[in-house]
Write a structure and sequence with these properties.
The protein is of the alpha+beta class. Helix content is 47%, strand content 19%. It has a 5-stranded antiparallel sheet with strand order 7-3-10-9-8, with helices on both faces. The chain has a 3-stranded antiparallel sheet with strand order 4-5-6. It is elongated. The two termini are 52 Å apart.
Length: 350
């Protein structure tokens, strides 16, 4: 099986036509159809011979003796790496994505949820967004707000732009005059520490504080000990039903494999992360069929990209669909959306 990248110009032309045809029609394609559909200035016999060579090299396969040919994983890989021209999003598509995400800038979780919805809507596939684990986020601001003499609200804003609000009952109650100084003390001393290590940081540094600072640290520790555990990262997933409308997944066994995969969020995260690790960060990466780890991935592809807050990679987005995916359009969509999401979340966090 040949895996080099030096197909001849003629082979490139025929392989590109075969991939385009299968992406568009979901039907195996023969030599006569390629000549007619793409206006290639070669005889059907010549195209047939080239397709036979591409099959022998592993780029195409014939599902049945009398049928046309379809691309293999290797064929799609060659197409994505050497033949594909990334399609520009239209101005209307860009404007819609920016408008709908900007409208939700007061809530980072809602921005990420809407991102998965837009990826699904504009790709007609399944949109995936991984929100950052709270353990990876840093404290950007803390506010302790008195509600009653024995009850306070604790607001923790992280560097991803998320705000978590917790209600805490204190027994004995906290001295009311201390509450506003408590917020100032926490922001002055603990801004930038990891959210999941906030309480540990106060504990560790407790002995360093004296007099009123020591009292504030003890009160802060009493409040922080009552907060619930941090939440793990969330995977937002939209458009799964569109996936099962694709011809590839009308086969019950194949559909069941993909359904199980979509239900196993940890496996999806593993595939997303492997995709991003394969690529040149922060660029968009394509994972095709068995290139992804694990079982049940033979019929799918994933286009994925990381998104950043500042210069730090904090999560990933992607579009999951059949291998017969419109890679030029989906790659542009994921690339643009990841860049925009990075800019918006960075703005939200500052």
């Amino acid at each position: 099986m040949r895996q080099d990248a030096d197909l001849s110009e003629r082979e490139n032309l025929i392989l590109q036509a075969a991939v385009h045809s299968y992406i568009t029609t979901a039907e195996p394609v023969g030599s006569r159809a390629i000549v007619k559909r793409f206006g290639i200035d070669l005889s059907a016999a010549t195209v047939r011979n080239v397709m036979a060579d591409l099959e022998e090299a592993g780029y195409l396969q014939q599902l049945h003796t009398s049928s046309g040919r379809v691309p293999t994983d290797l064929g799609y890989r060659y197409y994505v790496d050497y033949l594909m021209r990334v399609q520009e999003l239209t101005l209307q598509e860009r404007a819609r994505i920016e408008s709908e995400l900007t409208a939700r800038l007061n809530d980072a979780d809602e921005v990420m949820r809407q991102t998965s919805h837009l990826l699904a809507l504009l790709s007609h596939q399944t949109g995936i967004v991984e929100s950052p684990d709270e353990g990876d986020a840093q404290v950007n601001r803390i506010e302790v707000v008195p509600l009653t003499p024995s009850r306070v609200a604790v607001l923790i804003a992280d560097n991803v732009g998320r705000v978590r609000t917790h209600m805490v009952s204190l027994e004995p109650s906290i001295e009311s005059a201390l509450v506003p100084r408590l917020s100032a003390f926490l922001n002055e001393n603990f801004r930038g520490v990891p959210v999941d290590r906030l309480m540990t940081s106060v504990q560790t540094r407790l002995r360093m504080f004296l007099d009123e600072q020591r009292l504030l640290a003890e009160e802060a520790l009493r409040v922080l000990q009552l907060l619930p555990a941090n939440r793990p990262g969330t995977l937002y997933l939209e458009g799964a039903t569109q996936l099962f409308e694709q011809p590839e997944f009308r086969d019950v066994d194949r559909a069941r494999e993909v359904f199980v995969l979509l239900d196993e969020k940890e496996r999806l995260l593993e595939i997303l992360r492997s995709a991003v690790m394969q690529g040149e960060s922060p660029r968009t990466t394509v994972v095709i069929g068995r290139e992804a780890p694990g079982d049940g991935v033979e019929g799918i592809s994933l286009v994925a990209a990381p998104y950043l807050v500042g210069t730090k990679k904090v999560g990933m987005i992607g579009v999951l669909g059949p291998r017969r995916m419109a890679y030029p359009k989906v790659t542009a969509l994921v690339d643009y959306t990841a860049g925009l999401l990075s800019r918006l979340l960075t703005r939200l966090a500052t």
